[in-house]
Structure formats: structure tokens, C-alpha cells
Amino acid sequence: MLLQVNTKHQVANKLVQTTCPYCGVGCGVDVVQSGGMTGSLSELKGSAEHPANYGRLCIKGTHLLETLDGNKRLLKPVVFGQPASWDEATSIIAARMKSIIEQHGPDAVAIYGSGQLLTEDYYVANKLMKGFIGTANIDTNSRLCMSSAVVAHKRAFGEDIVPCNYEDLEHTDLLILTGSNAAWTHPVLFQRIERAKLRNPDMKVVVVDPRETDSCSLADLHVALKPGTDAVLFCGLLNYLAHHNALDDTFIQNSTNGFAEALAEASAWTVAKVAQTCDVPVAVIEQLFNWFASLPRAITFFSMGINQSTSGVDKGNAIINCHLASGKIGKEGSGPFSITGQPNAMGGREVGGLSNMLAAHMDIDNPEHHATVKAFWQAPNLITKPGLRAVDMFQAAADGKVKCLWIMATNPVASMPNRALVEAALKNCELVIVSDTAAQTDTLNYAHIALPATGWSEKNGTVTNSERRISRQRGLVEPMGEAKHDWEILSMVGRAMGFEEAFAYQHPAEIFAEHCALTAANNNGSRALDLGPLADLNIAQYDSLRPQQWPLSNTHRIGTDRLFADGSFYTPDGKANFVAITPRLPEQQTSAEYPFVLNTGRVRDQWHTMTRTGNAPRLLKHIDRPWLSIHPVDAQVLDVKDGDLIKAEAACSGGIEVILPVKIDDKQRRGEMFAPFHWSATWGSHARVGALLNGANDALSGQPELKHGAIKLSPVAMQSYGLVYGEETLVNALQSATYYYLNTLTSVAACIEIADQRDPQSMVAEVIKHLPKDAQWATLQGPHQLSIVVTRKNKLVLAILLADKPTDIPRDWLDSLYNGDELSPEQINGLLEQQPDDAFLLGKVVCSCFGVRENTIKQAIAEGNNTVAGLGKALKCGTNCGSCKTELASLIESTSAVSKPHLKEETTNEYAL
Ligand SMILES: Nc1nc2c(c(=O)[nH]1)N[C@H]1C(S)=C(S)[C@@H](COP(=O)(O)OP(=O)(O)OC[C@H]3O[C@@H](n4cnc5c(=O)[nH]c(N)nc54)[C@H](O)[C@@H]3O)O[C@H]1N2
Ligand SMILES: Nc1nc2c(c(=O)[nH]1)N[C@H]1C(S)=C(S)[C@@H](COP(=O)(O)OP(=O)(O)OC[C@H]3O[C@@H](n4cnc5c(=O)[nH]c(N)nc54)[C@H](O)[C@@H]3O)O[C@H]1N2
Ligand code: SF4
Ligand SMILES: [Mo]
């Protein structure tokens, strides 16, 4: 009998593998594709065999498919406000750019790109600018992210190389997380660390962060240091190692330069002086130093709390110095581990996508490298000098020197410091081109030409993760609308500018092959980045490329797990360099007028400016609003309570008002405030945190100091507070009626939180003007609140719930009433009285995957389920993506009142240094 083959099923369902587009962990993702490239995607899971994640995903990765909303996409090119064809758009860009170059020279043109571009996109952008247009004015948001680590690597190792790999995290004795909240920002690595500690309970984890973050759930020690003092801490460690017989003299002798000078500079930093300067108890410092000196293996995992600093490069080298001195590098479970933020920041570094790099880890000022690249590209206009770095690029645009700025895959109006300057720069430019996937961003508001780019699931190419592993991001569906790939758009413009041959690409495989060939050109072992063995892949081989770690051996095509294992480095004499460090304070210092430190960063479920994660309602459940966290003692002094609005001002605000709801938080130091930077003007009338940071940056790396602003605060008195919830068009119509709003979208309806200087009663007239004619409405006015509930055929259309003080009405409750069912009279009354029923009083959702709420969890803990695994068994929470496990652990800790013996003491901290 013939076996019946169900061909329909085979065509319909295919398991495809790709890579998550968010963080630098670079997790492999499996998706079921139904109906081919024009079909649909479902059943997204972590790839079991991908070495970055072995099947795990965090919450952002898990909910990727929910972010692909076509309504939020830019679908057609728009040129000076009018829809245009691609030919029109690219020929206008080429003509305008050529005329600007003719009049003002190539440096009047700039590209501001992104670590979220694929390697192929990046390669073409870099080649076009540096080889053909003839300017190095191509920089990226990676400047804001890891440029300090790049310079620290180059100074110490001779090349921008991250020596460690993820497995090292599982084979170490001491893991220091410094300036990293990995539990929220690199969650899959954090899960790997968690598992490693379970397997080896002797492994020590130390968190160095002014705030007690969720990452502390795993910490044996939390060093809550005064912000900006990490270089002091690591200089002190170097000094301690020298005095405690913990140096690797042979390694220092054979493999390094400059030890004596570095130690001499660090010798002033005794434990007592470190403790005093970092404002941490002596016992805490001693414990950390003792562990580093005595445990055989140690990793220092560092991120934005180190890099985003005016002395970020020095901090990186202060860390590397300690690893070189103790020989804790190039060995399993040891090394300085700079963790990258964006999915392809590493790929960008590989192609040379920053303004001070040439290409393929080759240098602008090296004549041999220059000759190699010139010949390889057949470049008519190869650059001879570095270009502008991000902050300077926007300054140059504001000064009229840069006249054409092409912004690609980044949202600088929201994410750069000194928003006032960035806005002025874009207003001043003759031509602003923005390539984005989203239809609305703060930056698109300034675009003369908006170009729709393909996004994740459509894009096709490669990315490199934090451990140098190259993976494929595969095209799974056809581009939405008229969107084109970034490399395609750049190539079209390149051809329209007359460089037909150099930009004739038809497929990303051709670009990848060319990039790999360039890394191998005249290399002969002089650069670790040698992808030569991949330079001859054809399209089919490229399509089936499996994750690869570089450097690649010519014979075996396998990655070298750990670099520097042989004690040799990529400097001219093959030795690593110690760098003598004199710690410096942050430049944005507090003063009598601006007395508070502003720290900024990330939350667990949002990605940057929320153009993607903001589309997934589930990702807004963990935290649904911006905030400014304030220590309870400061709150008392400022006379503010949870939910009150507070205005933040900095010397550089430039008239941009920033107003945020207060969150009282005793997990940070007095005098220091924290705000997430995710919410932008697209998400709220006054959520523009970048306006509070002045753009001060590291002279060596150009990386801005985003963790240390100086601000003053004043409570904002409003007469009315509340929210408007319901049909999107009605809610939007009411935005104009509000002075202040936060904008969040729930699963089914639109919702804005508002505050207004008018009292609730006098707002009514304004509100009623907008009510739909075909609807019924009921109001209830009490002494302190006013509600309007609008229904159509008894179904909820709009609810306006106002009060004379901040309210906290659960969005989920409103969602459940807006489900298309008729409302009961009790439900309408509940709404009018602004009183949710019992089911909604169970607290916020902690586990978004299974919708498990805080109070349910606390109840279960009280009943004896005081392990994360136990809670998972009882309630399922934490058993899918696992992102909430750290929060479950903190709930267990706070609820069961059995706290770990953290080596922490109350210290009194003054505001000023
Ligand atoms: N959920 C989520 N994950 C992300 C991202 C996201 O947007 N959302 N973005 C990705 C990107 S691009 C990046 S760069 C990474 C960033 O990842 P992280 O660097 O982990 O994230 P941040 O929240 O910016 O900052 C980390 C911590 O630095 C601390 N810090 C501030 N000042 C100091 C200091 O002086 N010393 C020390 N030691 N610590 C300090 C802050 O309190 C904060 O907890 O996250 C990546 N992952
Ligand atoms: N205050 C403060 N500011 C910060 C930071 C901080 O800690 N504090 N962190 C800094 C850091 S580390 C980073 S990395 C930056 C991140 O800041 P941004 O890069 O500005 O943030 P994103 O929201 O990721 O912006 C990416 C944009 O590209 C679009 N996009 C997505 N995919 C594609 C694509 O394939 N092609 C194109 N053309 N567009 C695409 C998105 O819709 C979005 O508009 O923020 C920096 N700014
Ligand atoms: S940790 Fe999360 S955001 Fe980062 S790559 Fe993995 S799934 Fe994506
Ligand atoms: Mo970043």
C-alpha cells in the first residue's frame, strides 16, 4: 500500500528557526510557519539546541508574536508629507544628498544608525558612507550603549574582544554583576546563572548597584555603592590583591605591560578609603575583595552602570586590570565580561559601524588597513579621518554643519540625552530621513522623508550576540505593506548616487560573503575577527547557517570558546596592557539648586522606546506607567505620596517639562532617584526623561553619562486625576482636553491616565462635547470624585473616572468589563463608584504568562509554599518563561520575613559628594 503523504500539511506547517531581536543574549527562537511566506506564525518557543538559550526565552521573547501589529507599522514611503513610491523617495534622497555634498562637502551628511540593524544592513551603510560618500559621519546608538567597553578592550587587549562566553557563567566561583540588572535586562543569562548557583550553592554572586534591584534576589552580597564610584572599588581591589598575595606574577610578567604603574596609581585606595568613598560598610568591601582574592575563578559582568559614564572607559579598564593582575582571564569561569545590550551591537562593531572605526576591526589611522579596505571595496572616496560621535553629530546638526541626517532603526529624540538639543538639531537640518518600522515615534515627527523598513519576522540576515556567536535572523513572512530591508534601501540610494556596481546586491547572502571576505583580507592572524571560512557560502548554505562563534578556525569552522587562553593578546607585542586609573567623579554633579541624582534605566517587560513591546498588552501588565522612584525619607521632605505627580528639572531641560508619577521606593539610596527611559512623548505628554541629562560624555569613547543627572523636584498640584478608558477614537479625542496624560493601551481598549488643573466638575463640560450621540451615559458626582460611564446597548463604550487625588484603578478590571458583554446594573454602579469587585483586588499581575496576581501568590506563600518551585507547582507562576521568578523570590523573602544575611547596614548618605 502506498503511504499517503499529506502534502498540504507539509506546506502548511513548517518549523523555522530564527533569533530574538531584543537583547544581546541572542536567543534562538523556533516558530511554526503556516502557509509559507504569505501565511501566519504561531507556537513560538526557545530553540532547544541554540547555545545561547537552550530552549529558554524571557517574557519579551515569549510574546514576540503579539508585537507584530500591522496597524502600528509604517507601510509606505512618505516624502515631505506625501505618500511616494520607492523610486521617487530614493531618487529624491540621492539628488538632495548629492547637492548638499557638492555645496558643503561629504561631512555635511551623516547617518545615525543602530545596534538593532542586521550585520548586512550595517555593512552596506558603513561601505556607502566611508568608502563612497567619503565621510566617517556614521555613528550609532551603540555609542550610548557599549562604546566605553570597546575602548577599554582596545586599550587592554589591542582589539575589541569579549573574552568570555556564556558557559563561563556556569563554571565560576564568583560572579560580580556590576552596573547590570541582568534579572530584567538579560533574563535568560540570569536564569542560567540561577541554575548554576543551584547546582553549585558555593558559587558567590555579588551585585554592585546603587539600587537593590531584582538581580539582588540571587546575591550573597549587595554593594549599594554611591553612584559613579566603581573605579574606586576596582582600584581598591587591585591594591588589595597586591597586598594579599593574590597576584599571578608569572602571567603579569609574561603576558602584560604596565602593571607597576597601574598598581602605583591604585595604591592609595585602601579598604577603608574605598569604603568611605563608595559609601559602603567596610565589611562589605572586605567580603567582596576577599572572595575575589581567594576564589579560584571570577567573572566581572558589567553593563550600563559602568559604560554610561564620563569615565566609563577607565571603569572598564579598572575592572580588566584586576583580572589581568590575578590571571583570572582566558580561563574557564574567569574574565571581564562586558555584556552587550542590543541584539547586534557586536555585529555593528564587527563591520566597523562607529565613526572612529574603519571596517572589520581595522583602524582608520593604520595605512595598511586603509590600503586593504580601499582595494577591497574599490572605494573612490575612502575616509582618512574619524567622523562625529553621536552627541557631537547632533551638536553639529544644531550648529548647521551637518545638513542631512539619516536616522535608521533608532529613536534619538527619545533615547539621546539633551532632548532639547536633539530637537533643535533636527529642526535645523535641511534633510531628515528616518527609516523605521513604526508609524509613530518621537523622531518621525521630525522626518522630511520617512522610509518603511522591514522588521523582525520579515528581515533576513545575521546578528552576533554578546559571546561572539553569529546567528541567523530569518525572514519568516513577506514584508508588510511596501516595507523594504534596510540594506535594500541603502543599496537603492547608493545606486541612485551613481555607485551602481558597488551596491548591486540582490540578496543578503552576497553582502554577508563580502563582509566575511573583508575580515579575512590581509589578516594572517593579526585580527581575531576572521570570518574567512564563511566567505564562500552560497544562498542555500547561508540560509542553513547554524550559530557560529568567532574566531573561526580555517580548517574546522568551529569557534574558539574562550580567547586569550594562550596568554597572548592582539597588541603589537602580544601582551595585554594594564591602564593606570585615577578615578573621576560624574560630571553632572548635584548642587544646591539641583540637589538630586537622577539614575535612568530599564524595566523588565519593555524594550527601549516601546515601539514594539508597547504593542503587546501583556507586556504592559507588569509595569504600565512611567515613574520616578523616590526614597521614603526624600518623599517626606518633598511632601509627596505614591502616585502624586512631580516635576523634574535639570539645568539643560531647555523648557521641556518632565512630570512623572512618584513611586516610593526604599530599595535605593537617599537623594538618588530612578526613572525608566522607555516612555516618550509618544506615550505621554510629559514623559521625556532624556531632557534631564545634559549629554556630558566620556572623552575617550563619547559615551554619554546617562546614569547620573542632577535634578530638582517640585510636586505638581492638580485638581483632577483619573483615567479615560474605552474606544480608541473617543479616548484620543479627549487627549486634547487634558493637561497631563499617560497613554497606555490595554488588550481591548485605549486608556489614558489624566491629571488636570481644572477640578473634576469643570472638566465635565469639556468632556461632554465629545460624547457620541448614539450612546447613553450615566454620571455620579461625589464630594471627591466624578464618573461618567457611556454605554451603547448596555455595552461599555467609555468610562471617565476622575477624583481629586491620584487613583489607582486596575486596568484589568476595566478590560474585563469591556469584553463585548452587556454590563449589569451592579457593574455600572461599580464603575460609577470607581470600586472594582473582589476579583480585581488581588493585586498586580506578577506572572504575565498565567495571569497570577500578587495577593494570590502572597496567600500561597503564607500557606507554606515558600519556594519558587513550590509556587510554580501550586499556581503555575514562573513555569513558562520564568521572567517573574526573581519577583517571586522577593515576594517569598518579603512575605515570609526570613531574610538572607545580606552584609548590609543602614548608612546615612548625604546628597552631595
Ligand atoms: N527589559 C529590557 N531588557 C533590555 C533592554 C530593554 O530596553 N529592556 N535593553 C537592552 C540594552 S540595549 C542594554 S544596553 C541593556 C542594559 O542592561 P543593564 O545595564 O542591566 O540595564 P540598566 O537598567 O540600563 O542599568 C543597569 C543598572 O545600572 C545601575 N547603576 C546606575 N549607576 C550605577 C553606578 O554608578 N554603578 C553601578 N555599579 N551601577 C549603576 C542602575 O541602578 C541599574 O540597575 O539591556 C538590554 N536588555
Ligand atoms: N536616559 C537613558 N537613555 C538611554 C539609555 C539609558 O539607560 N538611559 N540607554 C541607551 C541605550 S544603551 C540604548 S541601546 C538606546 C536605545 O535607544 P533607541 O535605539 O532609540 O531605542 P529603540 O526603541 O530600540 O529604537 C529603535 C527604533 O528602530 C525601529 N526599528 C525596529 N526594528 C527596525 C529595523 O529593522 N529597521 C529599522 N529601520 N527600524 C527598526 C523601532 O521602531 C524604533 O523606533 O537608548 C539609550 N538611551
Ligand atoms: S533574553 Fe529575552 S530579550 Fe534577550 S534575546 Fe533572549 S528572549 Fe530575547
Ligand atoms: Mo543599549
Put the structure in a nutshell.
By secondary structure, the chain is an alpha/beta fold.
Mean pLDDT across the residues is 92
CATH topology of the largest domain: Rossmann fold
What would CATH call the class of the largest domain? Answer: Alpha Beta
Shape: globular
Tally of discrete structural domains = 6
End-to-end Cα distance, whole Å, is 85 Å
How many helical elements? 31
Task: Please give the oligomerization state of what you see.
Answer: single chain
**Biggest sheet, open or closed, and with what strands and sense?**
7 strands, mixed
Q: What is the radius of gyration computed over CA atoms, rounded to a whole number of angstroms?
A: 28 Å
The parts where pLDDT drops under 50 for at least 5 residues are 1-9, 897-913
Please give the CATH architecture of the largest domain. 3-Layer(aba) Sandwich
Strand content: 15-25%
Strand order of the largest sheet: 5-4-16-15-14-6-7
Bound small molecules, deduplicated = ligand MGD, iron/sulfur cluster, molybdenum atom
Fraction of residues in helix: 25-40%
Computed structural class: alpha/beta
Number of strands: 34
Task: Describe this entry's structure for a reader.
With about 900 residues, the chain is α/β, with parallel strands linked by helices. The chain folds into six domains: about 15-70, N-terminal domain of TfIIb; about 115-140 and about 345-550, 3-Layer(aba) Sandwich (Rossmann fold); about 145-340, Dimethylsulfoxide Reductase, domain 2 (3-Layer(aba) Sandwich), CATH 3.40.228.10; about 595-715, Beta Barrel (Barwin-like endoglucanases), CATH 2.40.40.20; about 720-840, no CATH class; about 845-910, BFD-like [2Fe-2S]-binding domain (Arc Repressor Mutant, subunit A, Orthogonal Bundle), CATH 1.10.10. The strands form eight sheets. It has a seven-stranded mixed sheet, with helices on both faces. Helix 4 (about 120-135) runs parallel beside helix 16 and helix 4 packs across helix 22 (about 510-520). The longest helix is centred in the N-terminal third of the chain and has 19 residues, at about 85-105. Molybdenum atom binds near residues 145, 341 and 342.
